[in-house]
Specification:
Blueprint: H1 2-43, H2 52-66, H3 70-89, H4 91-94, H5 98-115, H6 120-137, H7 139-159, H8 164-176, H9 185-198, H10 203-216, H11 219-230, H12 238-265, H13 279-282, E1 286-288, H14 292-298, E2 304-306, H15 314-317
Antiparallel strand pairs: 1-2
């Protein structure tokens, strides 16, 4: 009897130990999930304090080191990639090297893919950072990177065809590529509208729609969608809206006003005439550009850059402060 009693006691102790271990793992997993949520929140406030980008990256790194939950690690890696991508977009504010930021973002996305090969976020942010690296290294380098970019973006789309970021990226691609290699304004608008169907307040899609309408000469439509950006009350990403989308929309609205006014007064080109300036050189329309850096490097007139300057995605991959 004593032996049987001892056996039952050992079984009970072992069962208790197993349950305790399982409970500890669940508590740790929930803790890190909550911490990941906190890190995302810090990232989402980078418009209020640009230092939040670095703070969020440090938080993602700690989660990666300490968590053993693959889902949590995956989320931390792709968010780290996004944070580095965003940091590289604002070098004047962060004081960092944009190229190094994009390379770090690419490396983080590659780790996310290793953990979860069926998650679209890793592939998408790898492609985004790759495109930005190409933009900084120049046209020829970017062209060599295009097949790799397309491979990762296609994988992201295959995994999640309704991801608004992926849809916007495809819209940007069809907008900026010359028609001779597959560019299409109508296809661009199709993807951008789909992104808004999924996320009605996805302001980056609205900005790109405004650019497509300007390129087509549909200025009333451009003005309407760009004013939606400026007056958006609940953007999908408040920080991106405040730091990039709203300023870009306001700049485009100002350019429409300025160029139309100049055209009416006979003192300069109208909006319709402006895109043809660089056609003889690159066989594609010129694009409106946001940053001063590209203009100064290329010695272009104010507000214009040839679409061949980048691999597509001047807006997605070319945000500058």
């Amino acid at each position: 009897m004593r032996t049987s009693s001892n056996h039952r006691g050992h079984v009970a102790i072992a069962a208790f130990a197993v349950l305790t271990a399982v409970a500890s793992l669940l508590i740790a997993s929930n803790l890190y999930a909550q911490t990941l949520h906190d890190a995302k929140s810090v990232f989402g406030d980078y418009d209020r304090d640009i230092a939040n980008l670095r703070r969020s990256i440090d938080m993602f790194d700690r989660i990666i080191r300490e968590s053993r939950d693959p889902d949590v690690q995956y989320g931390a890696y792709w968010m780290k990639s996004r944070a580095y991508s965003t940091m590289g977009d604002h070098p004047a504010l962060t004081g960092t090297d944009a190229l190094k930021d994009y390379e770090a973002g690419k490396a983080a996305a590659a780790e996310a893919i290793k953990i979860n090969r069926n998650g679209e976020k890793g592939y998408f942010w790898y492609a985004v950072n790759l495109g930005k690296v190409g933009r900084l290294k120049g046209v020829l380098h970017a062209l060599f990177m295009l097949p790799e970019f397309e491979r990762y973006m296609e994988r992201a789309y295959a995994l999640q065809p309704d991801d608004p970021w992926v849809l916007v990226a495809y819209g940007a691609l069809y907008y900026e590529l010359p028609w001779i290699v597959g560019g299409s304004d109508s296809r661009a608008l199709g993807y951008l509208k789909r992104a808004l169907d999924v996320s009605p307040d996805f302001t980056v899609s609205m900005v790109l729609m405004g650019r497509v309408y300007i390129k087509e000469g549909a200025y009333d439509k451009a003005r309407s969608v760009l004013e939606r950006v400026v007056h958006c009350k609940a953007p999908a990403s408040r920080a991106d809206w405040a730091m990039s989308d709203s300023p870009a929309a306001q700049e485009l609205l100002h350019r429409i006003d300025t160029m139309q006014r100049a055209g009416r007064q006979g003192g300069g080109p109208s909006v319709q005439e402006a895109p043809s300036f660089f056609t003889p050189f690159l066989e594609c329309p010129a694009l409106l550009v946001q940053g001063e850096r590209e203009r100064s490097e290329l010695h272009l007139p104010q507000g214009l850059t040839p679409c061949g300057q980048v691999t597509g995605f001047t807006y997605i991959f070319g945000r500058t402060t």
